[in-house]
Every structure is written in C-alpha cells, then in structure tokens.
Amino acid sequence: MNIRKFVIFATAALVAASVVAAPTKSSAKKGGRSAKAAAVEDEEEGPDAKVKIDQFPRLGRASTISFPGIDAPTTLNGRVFTKPRQWIVLEAKYTTFDQLVEQLTFTWHVLLDSKTATTKDKEALAKRAPYSYFTQTVTYVNIPRGSHAASVCLHPSYFEQYGEPKAVGLVITDSKGNVLAGDCESEIQKIQSHPKSLDDAFWNKSDIMNAKANADGDPMIERRQGLQDRSKTVWSLVNPNDYELVQ
Fold it and tell me: Given 6, 139, 162, 184, which residue has the most CB atoms within 10 angstroms?
C-alpha cells in the first residue's frame, strides 16, 4: 500500500469511526438505555460499584455500517469489483471506577430477525428459523479507570442471510465470575427490555430459547456461531485506543 492509499484509508476509517461511536438523540429509544432503565441503574449503583454501562448498542438497521475501503476499485482480468456491504457492529460504552481493573469479561447475547435479511433467496429464508441466536465472550485485561468501549461484530454475510439484531444482551463479570453489570435491549414483543433480574433475560428463559415456531416442532430460535470480538475483524483498525487489551 503506497502513502496516498494509506492516507485515504486512514481518513475513511476515522469518518466511519465517528459514525459508529457517536451517540444519537434516539439512543434512549432505539439501541440505547431508556431513561427509566438509566434511573434504575443509577439507584442501584453504590460507592463500591466497579463498572457501569453508559451506552447500550443500537438495534436494527442502526447497528449496520459499511467498512470504509481504499478509494480505488479492485481489478481482476479487466473487471472492476466494488461491493459495498453492511457489517453488524454492536458497541457498548462503559466506565470503570477503580484505578486499575485486572480483568473484565463481557458476555454478549444477540438475536437476529430473519424477516429483515437482505438475501433474495426466498426459498432458503422459508426454511430458516425466525430468529438466529449468537453469543460471544470477550475478556479485557489491565483496564484503567475511566471510559471505555466494548464491541462485537458480525460479518456482512450474516446480516444478508439472517437479518438485523432485534435483541441484544450484555453481562459484565469480574475474574471470579461475579456479575458487575448487565442489561438487555429488545425490539421483539415477547422479549423484555431491561429486566429487573438477569435471570429473566431472554437467554436464561427456556420457554423463549426453546420455543417452537409451528406445530411441526421447528425451533423459533436457531443457535449459530460467527459473532466475533472487534479485534478479530477489520474494525480493529478504527479507533483502537478506545478498546482495552483482549486476553
């Protein structure tokens, strides 16, 4: 990569970062903590609080974004390839209060709605479960006091085949497995947002996770793999200093 291409790439990446990271006015309604949830969380925080979730990931189409490529077409045998595709990028902002936290583990729970998939293969969609469930655990180490971000991503192929995220849960635990913070945001009618107890979160409810879609016994939710920590994707090049070291 020559200097000109690198400058173009870096500029485009910074623009994309501002789009992904910037909070919106609608974040309290869509893809952010509601005012009620924030008030409840503030009441629960005491002088011994070690971590607080400040901003929850966006849901639906608001969670998707194209990665900025180098501003030049790729050619092969005289053909030009320019294929913009949308990634699902889920990002949470959080604050730590100790001078140094040795370890925090973030466990993500994500439901994609197949009705919002962009694939043209209607036959394949008809055979698919209405929702796809993804989970991923990411552990950060040596976290200094202050504001940070945590993020996981799904490759564009998942958005195209399985749809937009309509429910997202996040649980933060310490090195001993103690729950320090957690929440759930949902646009699915039967899945509760901001449950009073994480025991009532959708991923812990067998009646939701094992629900049947029809009389034939087909699952409502199908478990899948593919959710990745941001550091394992091309998004690791955007604002890397906002994220702590992954164990």
Answer: 162
Report CA dihedral (67, 70, 72, 78) to the nearest 10 degrees: -80
Backbone φ/ψ region at 64: left (φ over 0), alpha (ψ -120 to 50), beta: beta
For residue range 50-82, list pLDDT tens digits in order. Answer: 899 999 999 999 999 888 765 555 666 666 666
Euclidean distance between CA atoms 29 and 187, whole angstroms: 10
Cβ distance 81 to 73 under 8 Å? yes
The boundaries of the domain holding residue 26 are: 3-246
* The total number of structural domains that make up the chain: 1
CA dihedral 156, 160, 166, 170 (to 10 degrees): -30
Backbone φ and ψ of 103, nearest 5°: -160, 135
| Residue 42 CA to its chain's centroid (Å) | 23
Query: What's the distance, CA 160 to chain centroid?
Result: 16
Place of tokens 């910074």: 14
The pLDDT tens digits of the residues spanning 22-44 come to 433 333 344 455 544 444 344 44
Tokens of 139: 């552990």
Residue 16 has pLDDT above 60, yes or no: no
